[in-house]
Amino acid sequence: MSKARVATMWLDGCSGCHMSFLDMDDRLLELAGKMDIVYSPIVDMKEFPEQVDITLVEGAVGNEEDLHKLRIARERSRLLVSLGDCAVTANVPSMRNFFGPQKVLDRAYVENATLRPGPPKKDLPVLFPGSRPLHELVTIDVFVPGCPPSADVIYFVLNELLEGRCPNLSDKSRFG
Ligand code: SF4
After folding, report:
1. Does ligand 1 come within 6 angstroms of the Cβ of 149?
2. pTM of the prediction?
3. 59 with 10: CB under 8 angstroms?
4. What are the residue ranges spanned by the domains of the chain?
5. Which atom of ligand 1 lies nearest, measured to the CA of 88?
6. Is the dihedral of CA 152, 158, 160, 165 positive or negative?
7. Which class does domain 4-94+131-162 fall in?
8. I want to staple 66 with a disulfide (CB 3.0 to 4.6 A). Which of 52, 61, 119, 161 is the partner?
9. Is the CB of 79 under 6 A from ligand 1?
10. Is the CB of residue 90 below 6 angstroms from any atom belonging to ligand 1?
11. 12 lines ligand 1 (CB under 6 A)
């Protein structure tokens, strides 16, 4: 039997959901018998590949670059998983939505800067007015809440999806 092609993506999040993914520890070796990780911050693949079976996305969408990546993941993935509260509700990134992009940039690059205050001259993505959860922008197949979801929950979700089942998280999250 061929292995499933699995990707993970990191948008507007703190990487804590990916840390939780890695916290599966030796269970990752077990999962490696059923899946290959074809794109992720933890592997050295620069382009999101075609024909991905399952993609787990951490983080909200805060700028055009996030949205572009998310749309590519949606187009090329059979199942798209919203991983963690930032992806599901916009959570922490949405705290900036009350202030607007300019105040956020001033806070980060001017008020808190001790050397050369001011935003970088290049490679700074233009912020959307607010950070948004994934499902407002693309169709999501599975929602996995938690900040972060535990390694046990991620393991459960992956196993269920790899076995062709829709994971029932009703007794595994605070929203159950
Ligand atoms: Fe970090 Fe929590 Fe957001 Fe995951 S859900 S990216 S752990 S803040």
Report:
1. no
2. 0.94
3. yes
4. 4-94+131-162
5. 5
6. positive
7. alpha beta
8. 61
9. no
10. no
11. no
